[in-house]
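Fill in residues.
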C-alpha cells in the first residue's frame, strides 16, 4: 500500500494531467484547484515530519547524550 504522501502526490499529478487536457475553462480551473488541494495535503505531511524530526533532534531524542 502506498503511503499517504505518495497517494496525495499521485492525485495532484493526475489533476495536473486532467487540467492540461481540459477544453473548458471552468473544468481546467476545477482540476487546478484540486491539484493545489492535493499538493497542500502532501506539503502538510512533509512539514509535520520535518517538525517532528527537528523537535526530536533538539530534544536529544536521537540518542546523543
Amino acid at each position: 500500500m502506498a503511503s499517504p504522501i505518495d497517494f496525495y502526490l499521485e492525485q495532484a499529478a493526475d489533476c495536473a494531467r486532467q487540467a492540461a487536457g481540459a477544453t473548458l475553462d471552468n473544468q481546467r480551473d476545477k482540476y487546478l484547484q484540486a491539484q493545489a488541494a492535493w499538493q497542500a495535503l502532501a506539503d502538510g505531511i512533509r512539514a509535520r515530519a520535518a517538525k517532528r524530526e527537528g523537535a526530536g533532534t533538539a530534544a536529544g531524542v536521537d540518542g546523543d547524550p
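The helical segments are 4-21, 25-58.
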